[in-house]
## 1
Amino acid sequence: MSEKTIIAPSVLSADFSRLGGEVEAVCRAGADWIHLDVMDGHFVPNITFGPPVIKAIRNRTDKVFDCHLMIAPADPFLGAFADAGCDIITVHAEATTHLDRSLQAIRDLGKKAGVSLNPSTPESVIEYVLDRLDLILLMTVNPGFGGQAFIPSVVEKVRRVKSMIGNRPIHIEIDGGVTPETAPLVAAAGADVLVAGSAVFKGGSEEAYVRNIAAIRGASDGAMKKAA
Ligand code: DX5
Ligand code: ZN
């Protein structure tokens, strides 16, 4: 949907002891959005953070807060994530019994609505909710941890989703194992938002973040142009 790749660093790989400063540094280094991975130890085998932490870092930047909920159930908590300052709220299709209702609830809160699919989930589950969506997040790892290897079979799913959405204004976001090597594969297939955790935060300094973001952006923008 966007002509240039949107880079959304996942703070999962940041230094949590100075999270506010890390958000500021990665924004100065070229991040477009901030990706927030919320895990509950139930839907995924890891626990991260929730609305109070998001609220605490909200005043560090005006960039879009892109909230990826890996929690089940999600519906009872949507209001709290909206109040905390999330701009986009994404639920997993596998984690909500009534996906259509969850997406309506997010939009009723005045937020952009996203759905995420695990690598093994077929894209057919979103066929009847396309008009309720602002973003489709395709997982290229099994959710739960940063630093895992990219699953290449999802590239074909990106192509299929791109053709399913037609000319609807829906972002296709990729999450998991994104690096300068894998970014062109998904950008060429139609993805316009790339989440990256370890590939952005490696090096641990603002100078490193500048280089890391530029490397991913350069690789994906080139592939996007070729595909267009
Ligand atoms: C995984 C998370 C991802 C993760 C990406 O469950 O949703 O956002 O942080 O990390 P990397 O880029 O290291 O694969
Ligand atoms: Zn994520």
## 2
Amino acid sequence: MTDATAPITQDVLTLPRKLPEGDRMNLVGLTRDQLREALIAAGTAEKQAKMRVGQIWQWIYHWGVRDFSAMTNLAKDYRAMLAEKFTIDVPEIVSKQVSADGTRKYLLRIAGGHEVETVYIPEENRGTLCISSQVGCTLTCSFCHTGTQKLVRNLTAGEIVGQVMVARDDLGEWPEPGAPKDETRLVSNIVLMGMGEPLYNFENVRDAMKVVMDGEGLSLSRRRITLSTSGVVPEIARAAEEIGCLLAVSFHATTDEVRDKLVPINKRWNIETLLNALREYPRLSNSERITFEYVMLKGVNDTDEDAKRLVKLIRGIPAKINLIPFNEWPGAPYQRSDWERIEAFADIVYKAGYASPIRTPRGEDIMAACGQLKSATERARKSRAEIAAEAGLG
Ligand code: SAH
Ligand code: SF4
């Protein structure tokens, strides 16, 4: 453990699960156990509850139904009771932008008028949905646009699962009754790489991923879900045990001095502490390897020496190193490393025996690439301030 003076807080607002008396409860994002409890509390007989959970679960997560009246294998008065007590709510799409490369960025509105972004990245034989876990982020990585956003609140499990459901709505991916099963899925992979630090919203992220992985619904395997963390060390083992998905870590530097500046959580859990936690992850989660994300910043972390130190540091950890050319945003204090530099770095890593893909920036024209997300209202607020400053009013 190193310097623990950095004020890193995870003390952010989480909405209560149970709504005040009289309000209808959203069923999206409840685990099977929670759904069962909710149905029993609404008067469902205990011995029927398990079956009802199974039926409602399938309607919501397999068929994508949003209206209780469409749940035709339930009795009419039971459906009416459900409609009276519950809702099936997903975030609302405020706007959708489609990049020249097919990447789609959704701005979603959630309870309280807050906004988050979700990005869909189509590739040749898969489609990856990049989802957010918080509005903004309490951490302040100096190269990340989200880290400059002031407003922060944790997303509920329903708002996290809801992002997947909204993307399926927009892509028209819910199955048609009677149609042959289509094996190629549009949303085939999920990465928790949008706004926020997923391990600072652990329970909601875990419950949401449990819903997403459930075989009778969205049914994505845990090997198609990657959680990216900046290095919240105490939660890493817990993520292995309670979620079991693949792990990516925002490594980005090879000395504590540089990492302290880029990823300030390093002041609390330094490189050595982080690596010790990562060494345990593959065994605890029974997964093959960890992805080390490394953003390439010109003149900051991109020398041959950095590459050599990197492979030395991670020796013994089954790993892939994902090099991310820095994505610029207005006012960013860094520049992207030159292409030759990135390739030279990749070469050293590759020769040391690690896969070292360079992540192609996707959706740059719509500010959808990694680290560029920040809600439009936040941007608008900033530009109004800028306008005021320019006009001499600020
Ligand atoms: N908070 C989590 C997940 C969200 S960020 C985390 O930090 O891991 C997803 C990835 O994008 C992280 O590796 C992050 O460091 C990286 N990233 C952030 N800003 C970036 C930028 N401007 N250019 C390239 N990558 C960036
Ligand atoms: Fe937060 Fe991740 Fe951005 Fe750092 S890189 S500020 S942890 S979202």
## 3
Amino acid sequence: MAAPLLVFGKTGQVAHELTSLAPDAVFLPRSAVDLSDPEACEAAIRQHTPRAVINAAAYTAVDKAEEEDALAHVINGEAPVAMARAAAALGCPLVHISTDYVFDGQGETPWSPIDPVNPQNAYGRSKLAGEKGIAASGATYAILRTSWVFSGHGNNFLKTMLRLSETRDALSIVDDQIGGPTPARAIAQACLAIAEQLCEDSGKSGIYHFSGAPDVSWKDFASEIFSIAGRTVDVTGIPTADYPTPATRPMNSRMDCSTTEAVFGVPRPDWRDATQTIVGQLRQKGEIS
Ligand code: NDP
């Protein structure tokens, strides 16, 4: 029997999409392996001897990470490095998902994978620690930095907007942070394609960017969601300064994804198409009116 694909995570947005796209993979939910125990991550890889590993689990509570930075560091910084060590020993590739929050968000130019990093919050620092350790591990790897993830599953901006629109006819939404909303399903598809290509060609190892197109503000994303869902909500743009959060967010999250398309043949997905699909699915399931 062929060696399995091993996925850390099962219930998160990206992992959930992987369960339907790669039903034969072995999935490790938190109950099987807790990422706060990096040695357990290493042991799981040794036990399953996979052909490739995808890490779709992470500490993703960006604001809470400000007060739990030690835990975030273990889960996002140390556990992926332990995975990379085990993958290197076995000679199998690791696909790891990272974030636009490794950048400081200055300027208006899309960030390239080789641009200098300068995270502004504890979550970003923890994810950067993971990136650096993986790159130094000797493993064949792809670090896929993404942004503004959404799906029909779990908690995300799309679902929050749909929920708020049930009871509110006016909302104020930040309009000076710009980025690419990214469908979790497209990330899952990209991870699978990248994992298979890394099995064939370790020379493709490196850091890559992957976000949905076109780049927009949160306010524009919200307006499009309401338009697609047929909701009448009066959306007013506000500056980040008027919506304070414990963790500082980058203003410019635009990402240059050209090398991802050039190397792996994976283009930026159009988030408007995915929004349409997800709204239709939620309606069919009776989760929204
Ligand atoms: P979710 O928040 O939807 O899911 C995170 C997953 O990680 C959950 O399944 C959770 O399990 C699991 N997890 C958290 N802590 C642990 C732990 N200690 N041990 C084992 N599992 C744990 O994440 P997404 O799917 O949205 O994110 C996927 C990747 O994309 C992550 O690497 C994230 O950093 C990155 N990313 C996400 C963005 C976003 O907007 N969401 C933006 C940019 C990057 P449980 O269900 O048990 O809690």
